[in-house]
Hints:
Layout: E1 15-20, H1 24-34, H2 40-48, H3 53-63, E2 69-75, H4 76-80, E3 89-95, H5 97-104, E4 116-125, E5 136-143, H6 145-149, H7 155-174
Antiparallel strand pairs: 1-5, 2-3, 3-4, 4-5
Helix pairs in contact: 5-7
Amino acid sequence: MVAAGVTTTNYEACRMTVTIDEPFDRFRERFERAVPRFDAARFEELDRQDAAWADVSRLTAENAPHSFMIYWSLEASALMRLAGGTRRCVEYLMGNHVIAERMYRHDPAALLYAPLRLAIYDGERGERGESDRHGLLTCLTIDQPSSHFASLGDLDITQVGLELDQKLADLLAHLRLTVPPPIAGVR
Length: 187
């Protein structure tokens, strides 16, 4: 039996930013095609049917052609504009609950980091081959999945985190982006 108390864990995360030579709106559209929205109605129907996990896995594979789905997004720029902000930003929670379950079974605290959080936003002004109307670079920023999951101290969870590193690298390659060195070649 564990006594009541507080545990603290300090750990280091690896944040990765990819600068994209493509206008914000066009890249956002390509990203959202590659990572479709979670189809809540279809999954709720499986719940009502008390379906088998194999059915959930099948539907997840159909809904996540590149291993990830968007569970939530926030168009932050609309609100930030009221404070004088001019750069666009969309924040996403993307993930795959079939993969998340493989960590959850070992430690439900894994859901602190699953789904993954990422942002697509207007970066700084810069030289670009294809400038958007604002002259800003488009950026995608995300933390390396395994850097968070390893902090839980469970080798099974860490292994799934490394698998997520590879799936993220595969997604970025599909989007024709530079794959950051921390996740390039992870197998």
